[in-house]
Amino acid sequence: MIDFRPVIFVNGILLLVLAAAMAVPALVDLASDDLDWQVFALSGIVTAFVGLAMMLATRRDDRPPFSTRQAFLLTTSVWVLMAGFAALPFSFSALGMSFTDGYFEAMSGLTTTGSTVIAGLDTAPRGILMWRALLHWLGGVGIIVMAVAILPILRIGGMQLFKMESSDKTEKVKPRTSQVASGIVVTYVGLTLVCGILLWWAGMTPFEAVCHAMSALSTGGFSTSDGSAGHWSSPLVHWILIVGMAAGGTTFVLFITPWRRGRWAILTDTQVRWFLAFLGFFSVVLALWQWIVNDMDAGEALTHASFTVVSLVTTTGFASTDYSLWGGFPQVVAFVLTFIGGCTGSTAGGVKVFRWQVLFQMAGTQLKRLLHPHGVFVIDFNRQRISDAVVDSVLGFVVVYFLTFSLFALALTVTGLDLVTAVTGSAQAISNVGPGLGDIIGPAGNFKPLPDAAKWLLSFEMMLGRLELFTVIVLFSRTFWRV
C-alpha cells in the first residue's frame, strides 16, 4: 500500500512556495494602480491555506526516504495540483478567463510550453504578464531539478545514465545531488539576471527585460506582446534572446562543473556539440533559403533564421517573425525541429539531443553489423559505454513518444480541429514548444479559438511531454497500485 502522506506533505510545501510567488505580481499590479492585485492576494491566501492544511494533516516526526512509487506519484501530482492553483489568478482577473483557459495557461506556463489563450497582451495587466513569466521561471527550476535528481532514479528514457552518486566513495568523482541542485539554482538565477540586464541595455523596458529573461532561460516563450520577440525590431535584442534560449537548452550541470573538475566541461561534452551542430546547420539552411528564395537581406535572413531555429530546437517558442509565411520547405523544417529538443538536464523539452545521439549510433551499428556480422560494436556517450538497458530505455521512450503524439493528433481531430492544427498542435504540446503551424495556432495566432475539449487534451499532453511520458503513464498501470 502506498503511503500518501509524504506526497501530500511535499505538495503542501510547494503550494506554499506558489502562494509566496503570487506576491510578486500582486506588488506589480499594486505599483501600477491595478485592482488585480487583490486577485493575486486572494489567490495567494487560498493557495497558502490549502498548502498549510496539507502539511499539518500529514506531518510526521520520522522522515523515511521516498519509495519509487511515491516519487512517480509526487512528480505527476505536483504538476497537476500546481497548475490548478496557478490558474486561479487567470480565472479571477479582469481578463475574465474560464477555468479551462486559466488551467491551460497555467499548465503551459509551468511546463514551459508557451502556448497561450490570451489575446491583447500589449494591453493586458502587468501582474498577469509577470505571473506568466514567473510560472515559466519556476517551472524551469523544477524541471532541471527533476532531471538531475528524480528522473535518473526512476530510469526514464535512458536518464539513468545521468544518475548522481551520493555515497562518500564516489563523492570525489560526482558531486552530491543536493550540491548540484543548489549550484544549478544559483547558475539559473545568475544567467537570468545577466540576460535581463542585457535586454534592458538593448532597448527593452526593465519590466519587459525581466519577463523575457525569465521566459528565455526557462525556454518558455511567453511574451509581453502579441508580436512576441518580433515586437522589437532590434537585431541586438534578438541575438541576446538567441544566446539566452541556447543557454536554457544546454545541460545546466555543465555550467557548474568547471569549478568542480577544474576544466570547462561544456566545451568537451558530446551532447552540447551535437546540440550546437543542430543549431548551426539548420540556421544556415534556413538563412540561405530566405536569402536566395525569398530575397531577404543576408544579415536579416541570418538573424531571423537563427532565432527561429534556436527557438524551436530549445522548445522556447518565441517568434521574431511569422515563419509560416516563408514557404513550404521552411515549414517542414520547423515541424521537424519541433521534435529535436535541447540537452538533458536543461529546461528544454522535446526528445532531447542525447536520445538522438543514441538512435543515430544504433542505426550506424546496424549498418556495420550488416557488413561485419561477427564484429563487436558498442554505443558510447562521452567515451562511456552505454549499457543495453539504457539503449532499450531510449528506444522505448522514442517509440512511445511518437505513438503518443499520433494518438493525441488523432484525438484532436475528433474535437473538430483541421489536420494541420491537430498535428502541429499535438507536436508542439508533447515537445513543449508553444506555437504550431497554420492560421489558428501558428506564430501569429493563439489557442483561444480551440474548443475546451482540445484545450484539456493539450494540457494533459503538455504535462506528459514535460514529465517524460512514463512518469505519468505508469500511474495508469494496474501493477503500480497493486500491493
Summarize the structure.
This protein is 63% helix and 1% strand.
Mean pLDDT equals 88
Q: Kindly provide the radius of gyration, computed on alpha-carbon positions and rounded to a whole number of angstroms.
A: 22 Å
Oligomeric state of this protein: single chain
Looking at the structure, what is the overall shape? globular
Write down how many β-strands occur, each being a DSSP E stretch of 2 or more residues. 2
Q: List unreliable stretches of 5+ residues.
A: 161-175
How would a crystallographer describe the biggest sheet? 2 strands, antiparallel
Measured as a percent range, the helix fraction is 55-70%
Order of SSEs: HHHHHHHHHHHHHHHHHEEHHHHH
* Spatial sequence of strands, sheet with the most strands: 1-2
Q: Report the end-to-end length measured between terminal Cα atoms.
A: 5 Å
Tally the helices.
Answer: 22
